[in-house]
Write a structure and sequence with these properties.
Alpha-Beta Plaits; 4-stranded antiparallel β-sheet; elongated
Length: 129
């Protein structure tokens, strides 16, 4: 008679497991009528256009160590850019394009100089709501 409670407990566990497996199967199974159809997803454009990912006509430029201020000024003058702010003394500059060139075009031009470590857009960052 001592086996009866253990057997009852095992049967309860088995039934619980079977119900769980059945529920998972039910929720993940496909409708037999639609097995061969492909779901198409459409992309809907948002009503408002999102702002650009970076500030137009602004770039961050980082010069390599040891570049003279005269050389930095020469590169900026040659590329028609103006300093908005000097972020790291003599190394990192926030600059504005003085003509109608694109940010991408200026970055391509600036990265061709061996004196420049990198140039990148002035990216916009927003806090998630």
């Amino acid at each position: 008679m001592t086996c009866l409670p253990a057997l009852s407990h095992r049967m309860t566990q088995l039934v619980t497991i079977m119900m769980g497996v059945s529920a998972i199967w039910f929720f993940t199974s496909c409708d037999a009528r639609n097995q061969n159809t492909t779901t198409t997803h459409t992309f809907e454009r948002p009503m408002k256009s999102s702002p650009p990912r970076f500030v137009p006509y602004e770039v961050l430029v980082k010069f390599k160590d040891g570049i003279s201020q005269e050389r930095i000024a020469s590169i900026m003058k040659d590329n028609r850019i103006d300093v908005i702010a000097e972020i790291q003394r003599g190394r990192l500059y926030h600059v504005r394009i003085l003509d109608d060139r694109s940010v991408e075009s200026l970055i391509t031009q600036l990265t061709s100089y061996q004196e420049i470590e990198y140039a990148e857009p002035n990216y916009r960052y927003e806090m998630q709501k």
